[in-house]
Amino acid sequence: MESRGAHAPTTAPSECARPAKRLRSPTAQPTALAATGPGDGRDGPGMSTGHEEAKVARVDASYFGSYSHLAVHEDMLRDTERTHAYRRAIFAAGLGGKVVVDVGCGTGILSVFCAQAGARHVYAIEASGVAEQARRVVAQNGLQGRITVVQGRVEDVELPCAQVDVIVSEWMGYALLYEGMLDSVVCARKRWLGPRGVMLPRRAVLLAAPVSLGPTWRDWRDGANARSTFWQSIGNEYGLDLSAVAPLAQHCASRGVCVDAVPPESVLSLRPDVLVDIDCREVTMETLRRRRTESFAFKCIADRPLSGLALWFDVHFGVTDESDQDVTLSTAPGAPLTHWHQTILHLDDELEVRQDAWVKGSITISRPDDNQRFLALHVSGKVEGPPVAGVPVPVACFSKSWNMNDDNY
After folding, report:
1. Can the peptide bond before residue 38 be classed as cis, meaning omega within 30 degrees of 0?
2. 158 classed as catalytic
3. Is residue 126 among the annotated active site residues?
4. Which of 38, 144, 267, 365 has the fewest beta carbons under 10 Å from its own?
């Protein structure tokens, strides 16, 4: 697939009440990315046997089925920052005479770019039903002899060649790792990429920073509270007491991950911390699937309430364009807006911080056992300072879990 199916980045409202970009039907009504707590994430898509294999098959059927809807592909093609970045990288990568695999080709636009950039042949692999549309796009652009669309999972399909020179894929999800598509890219690399082969992108970095969101945080809190209030009051309409459901509604709503644009002035630290740094040429499936805990430490630059953390990613293609500039794609606050926006982890209560205070803690990232394409997150930390006589002063502690998925319940 080309990317996640969010709404057009130039006009999209907050996605705090929006479904997952890929893991949903594009015709469904918006729902929150719900939170239920961290899992240990021991297995990944495409592995295991018996009931585990059946579970993976069910997850993948839903996942790829969502990509049979054109609305998803329309949304991601509207993201011109993303698509032009890939085009610049492809034309700068020296593809003349090379064989390319496009993992998750969607409607085939990246494959067409590769052929236009001089690739000898492109194998465009797509597991969803949109593969037929990719074939039509290829034919419409007169490239039938240089692009072969292969429908199926990377883990299952066979190619007529033993080795390729380049793998291109737009695999990134919310918080970089959501959806687990990088697993399939690694599988393709292990199966077909030659020893001197090129990965596009070459490197991906997940970053985090503390944020102070002001009215946006209050709107989020009020929305979460309204979900609980609904169950406490709606029973009166029918002469019943439905308040027993209120705690679950509050839990799901208050811990839902939000995807929204974070204004750069909302960031409370001068620089973000790197949580995950992936070399796409070297990363292993085992590394991707294991539970990881990363620490962070941010020095705050203003006296403002801490609303939570924002996550985003940058990808580096490892090539330079005609202007001798490194080709990168950033989803940071203040960068040109993409359909990924930023991922916001709201705290249940804002914490007052002062300039030069430190926000320190850790974030645990794992995959829930019931769906390896989702992400489980847990953040714990504390606010210290500013120092008194050089000694940090504990101010407040926080701890919260999220499970990034496309269900409210």
Report:
1. no
2. no
3. no
4. 144
Contacts for 5 with CB less than 8 Å, ≥ 6 apart: 21, 22, 26, 66, 69, 71, 72, 73, 74, 75, 76, 339
pTM score, whole prediction? 0.85
DSSP conformational letter for 22:
S
179, 286, 352, 384: the active-site residue? 179
Amino acid 30 reads P
In single-letter form, the type of residue at position 311 comes to L
Q: Which uninterrupted H or E stretch holds 231?
A: helix 215-233
Q: Exposed (0-12), middle (13-18) or buried (19+): which is 51, by Cβ within 10 Å?
A: exposed
Between 5-14, 46-55, 254-263, 380-389, the lowest mean confidence (pLDDT) is in 5-14
Number of residues written out for the chain: 409
C-alpha–C-alpha distance, residues 153 and 261, integer Å: 33
Q: What is the DSSP string of 59-109?
A: HHHHHHHGGGSHHHHHHHHT-HHHHHHHHHHHHHS--TT-EEEEES-TTSH
The single residue listed with the structure tokens 């918006």 is 30
Structure tokens at 275: 């949580």
What gap in Å lies between CA 179 and CA 162, rounded to an integer? Answer: 28
> How far is Cα 162 from Cα 290, in angstroms, rounded to an integer?
30
Q: What is the separation of C-alpha 216 from the centre of its chain, rounded to a whole number of angstroms?
A: 22
Token digits of residue 258:
């939000």
Helix residue ranges per DSSP H, 93-181: 109-116, 131-140
Return d(Cα 342, Cα 340) in angstroms, integer.
6
CA 277 to chain centre: 14
8 Å CB contact between 311 and 275: yes
Count of beta carbons in the 10 Å neighbourhood of residue 167: 24
> Using CA atoms, how far apart are residues 275 and 283, in angstroms rounded to an integer?
15
What tens digit of pLDDT does each residue of 251-282 get?
A: 888 887 899 999 999 999 999 999 999 999 99
